[in-house]
Amino acid sequence: MATDFDSTLYLFGTVHLLPDDLDWQRDDMREAFNEAGTIFFEVDTGTQGQIDATILTTNLGLRSDGRRLTDSLDNYQRNLMEAAANNGGLTIAALDGMQPWLASEYLTFAAAQNAGLSAELSADEALKSRAERSGKNVIYLESLETQIRASADLPEYIQLDNLTETMEQFNTLGFDATEIAAQWSVGGTAYLTEKLIRPMKARPPEVFNQLLRDRNRAWATTLSRYMEDSGTGFVAVGTAHLLGEQS
Questions:
Q1: What stretches of 89-143 show up as alpha helix (H) in DSSP?
Q2: What is the residue-wise DSSP string for 199-214?
Q3: What is the per-residue DSSP string for 34-100?
Q4: For residue 119, which of 19, 20, 23, 97 sits 20 to 30 Å off, Cα-Cα?
Q5: Distance CA 201, CA 170 (A)
Q6: Per-residue model confidence (pLDDT) at position 48
Q7: CA distances from 181 to 87, 106, 124, 201, 245 (A)
Q8: What pLDDT, on a 0 to 100 scale, did the predictor assign at position 188?
Q9: Strand 38-41 and strand 7-14: pairing?
Q10: What is the H or E stretch that residue 137 is in?
Q11: Which residues pair with 13 in a beta bridge?
Q12: Which parts of the chain register pLDDT below 50?
């Protein structure tokens, strides 16, 4: 929570993939949400947002250069992709038409779905629904293009490294995501920092900078302006944005 003499800002970290039976909505969170007149989310995922996301993902994530993803992979990586695709219920043909960053996301979501996790029942979607039903003033901290480009604009070699790691860890991704959700629901910030921030910091600096640091700085500017006025706000963003030294 951030406060000054006439304004309050509650900060709530969310998890974008959750099982449908997880009890995460605590009374203190509900009270803070009810008190707030303005709710901040990362991006608009409503009907128009979903349409925009599909268009942007097609433009930025599907290959149009005549090459296939497997053209950039060695035999080990191609075998990994075949195994991950089979285990995730995906086809090599579908993944082969993607940029590495999008293939990695598809595989991550497939692993999460196999473990019974869903983005449709996430904390973000639950709070967006409540904000709309309550008539709250909703502000989105960034555009969908900004969010998607954080991954899409990474250098290709980094995208390929990330994809390889996703494929190597595919069979444990679902378990890891389930454990992250469980730890998040009980406030396990030390565990979450170890699982979410430390691995990102171990990668080339562009990964942490583009996915977290730069976006955090932009959001902080918007939230600082809000604090210059009076009122109570509630910020619901991915919990990784609220962990670590540059949160």
A1: 92-96, 100-114, 123-134
A2: HHHTS-HHHHIIIIIH
A3: HH-SEEEESS--SHHHHHHHHHHHHHHHB--SS--GGGG--HHHHHHHHHHHHHHT--HHHHHTB-H
A4: 97
A5: 21
A6: 85
A7: 22, 19, 13, 21, 22
A8: 96
A9: unpaired
A10: strand 137-140
A11: 237
A12: none
